[in-house]
Amino acid sequence: MNKTFLIARREYLAFVRTVGFWLSLFTLPLIIGCSIFIPILMRHSAPVETVAVLDLSGDHIAGAVADAIRAHAPKPGIFDDGGLELAPLPAGVSVDMTVAEAEAKIPAIIASGQVASIIVATDSGDKLHFRIWSADGHKGRVGNAIEWDLHGLQYYKLARLNGVDHGLAHDMREARADIVSLTPASAAPKTDGLAAGMRDKAGQYIGIAISYLTWIAIFSSSMILLGSVIEEKASKVLEVLLASASAETLLIGKVLGVAAVLLTVWGLWGLTAFALGSYGFSAMPPEKVHEIMVALSGVISVGHIALLLAYFIGGYLMFGVFFAAVGAFCETQKDAQAIVGPMTMIMMIPMLTMQVAFTSPDLPALQYMSWFPLFTPFLMPLRLAQPLPWYEVAGTLAGMGVVALIMVAVGRRAFRAGALTGGKLTWGTLLRVATQKAPD
Amino acid sequence: MDNALSLAGVSKRFGDFNAVSDLSFEVKRGAICGFLGPNGAGKTTSVRMMLGLSEATAGRIEVLGRAPGKALERIGFMPEERGLYRKMTAIDVIVFLAGLKGVKASVARQRGKAMLEAQGLGPFMNKQIRALSKGMSQKVQLISCLVHEPELVILDEPFSGLDPVNQQGLEAVIRDLAKRGTTVLFSTHVMQHAERLCEQVVLLAKGRKVFEGTLKEARAAAPRSLDLEGALNAADLLALPGIATAADMGEAGEGAHLWQCHLQKGHAAHEALKEAFLRGLDVRRFEAKEPSLHDAFIVLTGGEHE
Question: Is pTM, for the whole model, over 0.90?
Answer without folding.
Answer: no
